[in-house]
Every structure is written in structure tokens, then in C-alpha cells.
């Protein structure tokens, strides 16, 4: 079996004050879309930054992040920079602040081309116009000389995407690319990312807290909780038969398509407590919010159990078939 | 092209708006000076040691000081309107000539001091911010605090003690070697040697301000999302700092430097006195002591024009640095 495009194993991110990512792992094949789902504070964004090598200075990452078989964490900074922006690129959450306010859009796109492909400034500008066209910005030859404050949030996110795909990366990390945008723009941006993934043969890591977009866009879903993997499955399996109590809670807390029913049947369910409530406890981080706690859960975090079909669950109830299909 | 036309518009509008401002400044200055006790005749009489009532009355009539204040003011405004700054009885010279002699050396001092302060301040602030809370940052923070809190005249005196008296490397005062008859490159070098000490002692305070402001601005900009976007491009750290962080961090420094360009004349008075620098600051100071109001009004008028022009330059520089600022 060929090694996957990206293989993250045993990744931990440590700060002086704590470890927001612990022993996390997943892999992604060429051209695949993997969604990483979890609430705020679950360690999704730090995982993305660790893949990019953009963690804050105080943070230390351990484990392996193998990209095409090369462990990125073991590479010196200079070689990581050569990969960053060229083979692995990232789209950020906040389009309003992700662009330099005193630099034209064209120069910001051109910068990455000049760095990695050694283009002259004229050639970089021409490519920037093509890229703006590729991400469906209207009038690209005019927009290329605009400063970011002239563009709307959706436009700016398209520019950020243009920067990310400028060098045809084989892996694109999108960290909540649509959270700051309104719903109609969200769908457009996700469509755009998916089209670019197909056209440029990229793999896409889609980090989100919105289960609603997972089913439509992802090939595989990884649910993260408090820095660990809680569950991994195909979106169909996950949405139809969630196993981990946290995944079930997340699904119960999501508004359904039949929006009217949400309000007729009373308020949405919620998961009691907060993600921080188990910090420093030895056992499963979800214990304080879980209604199916087993004695073993309090001793150590439950190991990942393979259920077949690539499905992984970090919960002892996964071994009980009735529990799996009870929902 | 469009940008240039907008810039011309800003210049024209600033100059037009300057007229009422300058008029208001004239009235205020004139009133303030008239409130000060004593006039030129009093000072002259005191200096001569034996003046009769008649001589003083004659002096006052000669200077026009015997007229009602309103008449004096109108006469002064009339003078200004015909682009004349009046006559200094003390120096027996037209005020415009006096100022014309003093202005170039003062401008030289001010501009070199501010340039030194900007270059070194920005460099120090950048060095501090890039090493934040490590030892270079801590040491430079202490140094800039010292620069900030030590008075300029004391620094000037200490520089003289060290570099002129102890080592004998640099002249202790004046703006050029008198009677040396230097020409060409020698004359320029001579002027520079005279400039170093006063310009540095005037600059130290501003170095401290710019370094601290630059440090804070860089730290703030570095935490912003677009810096992470820049890093995600895989460009070198030097490019991130130069292209993305510095230009954004320069904005607050230019604002402050513009305000200082107008206000530095006040600091120049002290430094010019310490280094016997024949500039406007000292001229103003001496005119206060001698109640030579024509000269003083001329200097004040000129410095207010300087402030107005400095503000306009800041507006233009900021619009150039930050495209979000629209020139209107």
C-alpha cells in the first residue's frame, strides 16, 4: 500500500500551561477531503498550524507529521519554508484581517509566486490576474491593483484562497474558511474549494465546527475532542450512526433541515458542561459531560477501537453492538 | 496621476486654511506679549543704568510703543499683510533678515536631529520587538528609559565634557569654525563636526520615544492575522518583517514624528543655548529677555507656519503609507 499524502501520528502540542493537542493522528490521501470537526478549544486549529509549521514560539510539537513520507517536524525551518506555501498551503478563518492592508491584492498573490517559482514582478502580476479569475473574482484585471479594504469579506476570502493555491499545492488546509462569512457566501466558497480540489488534484483538510457542511463536502470525518480523536468515519456513517457519546451530542445539538421542527419540539439539545471541565483529570476528557460513563473511563482515556470500514471510535461503548445501533 | 492631483489639492487646501489659523495665532501671540510686564524701552533703560523719563518716552515713541495697543496691533497686521516682519531696534536689522540668518542653521539642526532620532529609534524599536522579553529587549528598554528621562541640557553638557573637553574630538559650540576660511568639502566636514553633538543631544529624547512606540507597534502588528498569512507563504522571516510588519508599524511613528517636527523648536532653545548654536531658538529666547517683540512675533509666526506645513507633510506621508487613508 502506498503511503498516504499526509500521515499525522502521535501529534501532541504542548504549551507551558498545558497540552491542547494530545496523541492525535489522522491521514489523508491524494485528492481526498477530510473534515476535522470539533467545538472551540478542541485543538483543530493548532493541529492545522502544526501541519503548516506556524505554531507560536512557545508551543512545542512532538510526534510525526509525514508529508510524502518526510517528517515535517524533523525538517529544519529553511526546508519547511520551501514546502510551506508551495506544497502545503493554508486558508484562514478571518478573511477581514488575513490580508495586509497596505499591499495590493495582486502583490500579495504575486509574493508567493515570486518566492517559490522565481517569477518576475510582471509575470507574477499576470499570474495573479489568472488566479483571481480562477477563484471567480469579477474584473480580475481591475481588482489586482485594489487594496484589501475595497473588497468584501467573500472577495477577500477568494483572494486568500488564490494565494493558497497559487503554486498548485498538493495539500490545502482550510481552517474554518467560512465561519466569518454569511450563509450564501459560505456555500460559494465551499463550492470553490471543492472545484479547486478537483481541478488542481489537491487534498483538502477542512476544519470546521459545522456538522452541516461535513456531509456534503467530506470523504472522511475526524471528530476531535479536547485535543484527542473521538471518532473517525465516513460522513454517511457518522451522521447516520454516531457512536461516540460526544458525536451523538453534537448531532443532537445541530439544527435539522426541517427548521420548523426545531422550534416546535422545544429548544435544541445541548451537551452539558464545557470542554475545559476535565482538564487535568487522568481519564477520558469527556467524562464530566457523558451519560454513559464506565468505570474504566475514569482511569485512562479509552483507546481507539477499529469497527471495520475505516471506522475508529475512542469509547468503550463501541464494543457493545446494541449501544452502537441504539441511536 | 489621479493621486498626484489629489495631493496638489491637499496642498492648496492646507495653505488656504492656514490663513485664518495664522491670523488667530497672530492675535493670541500679540495679546500674550502685551500682557508680559515691561517693554523694550524698560530693558534698554535698565541696561544703560541711567535713563531719564524723557529718553524712555523718546524710545517708546521711536518704536511706536506709545500708541494704544489696538493701533499697534493693526500696524503690525498691516506690516505682515505687506509681507514685512518689521524692524528690530535691538539688532538694528529688519526681522526678516535676522530670521533669514538664523533659520537655515536651526532647520539643519532640527532636521538632522529628527532624522537621527527616526533612524535610530525605528532600528532600536525593531530590535527590541524582535527580541521581546529577551535580554536585548530588556537592556534597550532601560537605555531608552534613561534617554527619555534625562533632560537634554544635561546630556548636552555631558557630551561636551566627554567629547570636547576630555577627548578633544569635537567642537563644543557654534555652527562652524569662525575665521577658518574653509571652503568646499572641508567646510562641509567642519559643519558636520559642529552638528554632531547638538543634534545627538536633541535627538536622544526622541530616539527613546520612537523606539518605545515602534516596539509597541511592531508587537501589535505581529499579532495580526495577515502576518500569519504572510508566514504561510513560506517567505523568509526577514521579508515578513520588512514587507508586512514594518510598513504597518510605521504609521503611528509618522504621526508622532510630524507633531514633533513642529514642536521640536522648543527643545532646540535649550540645546542651542548649551551649544551656543546661532539658531532661531536662541534668537527667540534672547528676544523674550529683551522684550524685542517684533523679532519674537516673527519667530512665533514662522514656527506656527512650520507646524502647519509639518502637519500637511504628515497627512501626505500617511496617505502614501496607508492606502486606507483617502486624500480628500
CATH class descriptor of the domain at 96-321 in chain B: Mainly Alpha
Give the end-to-end Cα distance of chain B, rounded to a whole number of Å. 15 Å
Indicate the percent of residues in helices of chain B. Answer: over 70%
Compressed to H and E, one letter per element, the order of chain A equals EEEHEEHEHHHHEHEHEEHHHEEH
Estimate the global geometry of chain B from the Cα principal axes: globular
The CATH architecture of the largest domain in chain A is: 3-Layer(aba) Sandwich
Q: Helical amount among residues of chain A, as a percent range?
A: 25-40%
Derived from helix and strand composition plus strand pairing, the structural class of chain B reads mainly alpha
- Unreliably modeled segments of chain B: none
Find the count of extended strands of chain B (DSSP E, 2+ residues).
Answer: 2
Instruction: Report the sheet with the most strands of chain B, covering strand number, pairing sense and barrel closure.
Output: 2 strands, antiparallel
- Cα-based radius of gyration of chain B, to the nearest Å: 24 Å
- Taken from the alpha-carbon principal axes, the silhouette of chain A is globular
Specify the number of helices of chain B: 12
Please, what is the CATH homologous superfamily of the largest domain in chain A? P-loop containing nucleotide triphosphate hydrolases
> Stretches of chain A where pLDDT falls below 50 for ≥5 residues?
none
Number of strands of chain A: 12
Strand and helix order of chain B: HHHHEEHHHHHHHH
The quaternary state of the protein chains shown equals heterodimer
- Which architecture name of the domain at 96-321 in chain B does CATH use? Orthogonal Bundle
Features:
heterodimer; A: 327 residues; alpha/beta; Rossmann fold; eight-stranded mixed sheet; 12 helices; 21% strand; B: 328 residues; mainly alpha; MetI-like fold; two-stranded antiparallel sheet; 2 strands; 1% strand
